[in-house]
Design goal:
The protein is an alpha+beta fold. The chain is built from one helix and three strands.
Length: 66
């Protein structure tokens, strides 16, 4: 049986939700080993002057605890 842990990461990007998700996983992987999956729980945007300024994601990162 594997023991799994879930952490929540908030990330943003000027490019896209996909890029924000990649940034979240990359940041988590600097301090967490054995990442198994990432679940985008929510997406939102920041609007400035009537235009989308940045994309935000709330990502749940699941990793195996050894």
């Amino acid at each position: 049986m594997a023991v799994m842990k879930v952490i929540e990461i908030l990330a943003d990007s000027k490019e896209s939700w996909e890029d924000a998700t990649k940034k979240a996983v990359a940041k988590a992987s600097t301090s967490v080993n054995n990442i198994k999956s990432a679940f985008v729980q929510s997406q939102s945007v920041v609007v400035k002057k009537g235009k989308v300024n940045s994309f935000r994601v709330n990502v749940k990162i699941t990793f195996e605890v050894k």
